[in-house]
Request: fold
Amino acid sequence: MNIGAMISVAAAVPGGSESSHESDSFAADKGELRITFLGHATLMMEHAGLVVHIDPVGAYADYSRMPKADVILITHEHPDHFDMKAIEQATSPGTEVVANGAVGSKVGGARILKNGDSVRVKGVDVTAVPAYNTTADRLRFHPKGEHNGYLIAIGGKRVYVAGDTEETPEMRALSNVDIAFLPMNLPYTMAPRQVASAAKSIKPRILYPYHFGSTDVSELTELMKGIAGIEVRIRRLA
Reply:
């Protein structure tokens, strides 16, 4: 599959101004799929007039100036992923919010997805992939069964946004992933070697490390050298 992309270094915002956020665009069914990298774990996807905000947080974008969401996906309730003010600013009367249980209990009308659940919302297919820690001394950060990653089918592409997790059996079982966002910061998520191991199982066509804080991303690029079929892209997602 040719997932060819062009890179746009500035994302348009309402009012005709430009932001400093990077974005990549991909050939997709019914027009391009554009992903804008707002920071840390905060992303925006646009396709055929549809806007999907993922873990909107006001520290990474001014949501009073961002496009309103058709769909908002929230992985879990930690404040670097869940910001009620940003959700309110991104919401219009038709916005659908999809979240884990803890967030869903705080956001009126949200569709709650448990691990393994799927929903079709505004033409986008969303599956909740379990997101949790597996290392003994980290289990308290993201307990099993509580938090989500999301496998998102949009424009004929399958995008995996892992949320806060380590490498898990459920992650390794994923297939036919075009684009993967895997978190990389200790002690809360994965070390570069874990991200590389997960990527070799998933085999995404494009791999974005995200949520990486001060982690040296060059360690991941070295680990992935010579791995056929996986392109590693580094964007401003610390």
